[in-house]
Write the structure tokens for this entry.
Amino acid sequence: MTSPPSRIISLTPTGFDILSELEVSPVKILSGSYFVPNFWAIAQAKPELIIGCVFPHRFWLRRLQQIAPVFLVTGNGDFETACQQLQDIAQLLGREQQALEVITTLKSQIKHYQTQLAFLGCVIS
């Protein structure tokens, strides 16, 4: 990609969450099966980037790549993994600074809740 993509499709809720945090609207919200994407509808939307999930979209990777470049998120993992995926997609979209701001805010909120709940003996990690 020579310039940040503006026509993005996400096939996964994780991708939608990341796009939302980066204040990017997907070009189209697709109906259909999560496990078997509607390739015709995806192609019709003329995306410049497709965000999918390692499972199940890795099985369709070759076919999706015929339509547009694909970025696969893990869809699970810990906070650091989520932050890394946010930063990776932000880099593709030219929104690295925005991702850093989101991560800083999230870390601040976690610290706040850790402090607030410490008196109950709760541990947030």
In short: Helices lie at 13-21, 39-44, 54-57, 61-65, 79-93, 96-117. The two ends are 37 Å apart (CA to CA).
